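worker-03 picked up job from queue 'complexes'. Input manifest follows; two sequence lines, order preserved.
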Amino acid sequence: MAGKLVPIIPKTTYDFTNIQAGAITAALPIGDPVDTLEYPLVGLIVRVHANNVGGTSYIQVGLYFDGFLDGSSFAYPDKDPWTELQITNGIASPTVLFRYGTIWSQYATVALTSNNSGVGGSIAATISVDLYLRNADP
Amino acid sequence: MAGDVVTVVAPRRYDFSTLTNGKSMVFRLSQRVDARNWVGAALLMRLTELDMGGGNVVIQAQRDGWTTDDPGNDFLTNIPGAAFTLGAEPFTPIFEVIDLGVCLGSYLAFTATASRTSATNNILATLSLEVRFRNNA
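worker-03 finished. Artifact:
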């Protein structure tokens, strides 16, 4: 099979308005770890249904290498995203954001971070996220 | 089949330490967990890391009435008594079972509501969630 689409989250609202001014949140995972072993070419698809991110704050959707270990009770995400898409005040909605590349680990995971620039206003967005997986087989 | 166990959240670390003191935030952990074939359920929660010096996190189960008639809207309501507060447990690992009752509806959803009650310290947990479905009350 040459490819498949993996839904990560359906249309969901995330609100980071109450994080501290000047702070960047830790990565908060959404959806399950996705096995990319047979499909190392991965596209991150983020649909922005509504955007209420004010000022210079942002919500970042990151794709992380994930060392998920079946049977372990601990999480092993990479500390930095492999790629990321930012939802800022300038992103009109509805729209779709897309990034594409090769995953090196077996599992990939999607996580959200947010930055509160401290100028006030809300930091919220309604998004849905998919991963598009494909391989190079004909 | 008399029962089934469904993984809802794989082991994940949730760190809400950047929350403003006195404020809360709701974070959706999972939704549209199919409950249509079952009468009753219980939430199985495994905690392997817990650092709640700065506040607490409430894990809440909800009935999720998502419908193809209005797919763009959420239809969520809390299941009474189906909440667990992370904050007072003295050690990890911990295994908690929370009864979700019967008459579950079509789908289930789960949220984490983090609240900061102290100006300092962390609010974080590493947890996994499963639902144990059963076909009797």
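worker-03 released lock.
Strands of chain B lie at 3-15, 24-34, 40-51, 55-64, 76-86, 94-102, 107-116, 124-134.
Chain B touches chain A at residues 7, 9-20, 23-28, 31-32, 46, 48-49, 66, 72, 74, 93, 124, 126, 128 (CB under 8 Å).
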